[in-house]
Amino acid sequence: RVQLVESGGGSVQSGGSLRLSCTAPGFTSVSCGIEWYRQAAGQEREWVSFISTDGTTTYSDSVKGRFTITKDTVRDTVYLQMDRLKPEDTGMYYCKTKAGLCGDTLYAADYWGQGTQVTVSS
To answer: Stretch 6-24: mean pLDDT, rounded?
Structure first.
């Protein structure tokens, strides 16, 4: 089992920045990579970004050009740099291992962190 721990959330004004961290020991051995999701109060959980174990990145249209996902495999940590934040970015941010078939390996389990709250005021 992989235990994921998010940190770095907080309250900022619109236009500000935050950097979230997701520490996930051993994630390169048990997953295709790490995803970030977010969930605003009363809304469905929304996919935000993904970084594969080989460094390929993808973003949702709502954050593309403002958020940057990176990884530090020495520290088993994935970062989500969030710039030009907007009030609609407010929510609980979760990281998750990505299961699936990656190359010749099938990773069967998803693991989630507990989340870190981001609040952006206008």
So the answer is: 98
